[in-house]
Amino acid sequence: MENVGEALQSLLAVTLVAAVAPLLLGLLPRLRVPQVVLLLAGGIVVGPAVLGWADPTAIEPLADLGLGFVFLLAGYEIDQRLYRQDAGRRALVAWFVSLLLALGVIGLLAWAGLVRAFVPVALAMTTTALGTLVPILRENDMLRGRLGGYLMAGGAAGELLPILAIAVFLGIGNRFVALLSLAAVVVLAVLLGVAARVLRPGGRLDDIISERQHETSQITLRFTVLLLVLLLAVTERFHLDAVLGAFVAGMVLRRWAGRNARVLEEKLDVAGHGFLIPIFFVYSGMTIDVRAIAAAPLRLLLFFGLMILIRGLPALLVYLRVLSLRERVQTVLVTATALPLVVALTQIGLRNGTMLPENGAALVGAAVLTVLVLPTVAVAITRPGPDTGRDVVARRPDEVAG
User: Which of 133, 270, 321, 388 has the fewest CB within 10 Å, making it most exposed?
Assistant: First the structure.
């Protein structure tokens, strides 16, 4: 009972932060920061580093589910047609340029003895926190118009491709098992996609889902949660594979939903952004080692600068002829924003003993700093022009890419 009481106390502190964050933004309209910034900061305050009101381990299962929802919604937001268009092709080019830069720069740091876990640190430099960014971009109407398609494609490349690399090279000790796990996720996605075409249109199952998706049944939401929890349960020892599964599940769900896509999206927003996702971000703030960061602030600043240089700057050239300078700067800031995958990569490096503890803390601190600073700046420099204003009203990201 004592453990239950401690867990409830921790959950109370976390939900307090989650409830107060949007309230503060409403009461202080001049406080132009993304909500996730307040959630992370609140997690630091109520966590072990400051007040000690909450224990991260007590809410870890809910935080894992929240992380799953982050990636599920990120996958759900992606229109797969983007990668058959100009936005997707340029996003892939930009990511591979970032990967080459990361291998070169982190290789030099490893040669100098500053980095020991070469692969995790290099991959961390290529990530984009699309799941973190989507609510920020949506709240500020940055997912509409021409720019929205390029931001979504670039963010998806910076999230999906590192996840695939992590699953193969770092997720599981046995490389063959890792590839088998990855293949299983792909096969599952294909089977679900085929099942969506065979079972849904005009059949009895389609009628049942349509009839029982509202009120007390909430069948679409229940099966979505079932799918997500199943992925997390099966892969509890291999957390990154669950992340990959959640991301792919979101992409599949978009196809499964069919005519109910908008309704399901609203339900996922309520369950995710209303409860589970804020818990994940507050939990992330609670796990930040503030003392280690304070002991080596220059490492944090070094990794922060490298994230912008390696992940962001290629956008200035790759999008040269399709986006204005202001839009390219916004793309730099958005694609260089990282957090969930950096936390996961750091945990892998620390768990297998290849990453220096001070580098792990500095990496997470730098990723948090990107979330605190870069989206805020990207939003601040947003100004609708004579053409983009019309795009905002009339078009969606999946209609404008390319």
Answer: 321
Strand intervals (E) in 129-186: none
**How many helices (H) and strands (E) are present in the chain, helices listed first?**
21, 0
Q: Give the dihedral of Cα atoms 100, 104, 110, 112; nearest 10 deg.
A: -170
**Confidence (pTM):** 0.70
In one letter, which amino acid is 306?
L
Half-sphere exposure of 361 (CA within 13 A, CB side): 15
pLDDT, tens only, 280-305: 888 878 877 788 778 878 889 999 99
Q: CA 371, CA 378: separation in Å to the nearest integer?
A: 11
Give me the CATH number covering residue 7: 1.20.1530.20
Number of domains in the chain: 1
Helix ranges (DSSP H) in 274-387: 277-286, 290-295, 297-307, 314-318, 325-335, 340-351, 357-380
- Quickly tell me which residue has 């204005």 as its tokens: 324
44 touches 286 (CB < 8 A):
yes
Note the pLDDT tens digit of each residue in 146-173: 888 888 888 888 888 887 777 666 654 5
Q: Is the pLDDT of residue 385 over 70?
A: no
Q: Which domain holds residue 340?
A: 2-400
Q: Round to whole Å and give the CA distance between 364 and 354.
A: 16
Q: Which helix (H) or strand (E) holds 175?
A: helix 175-199
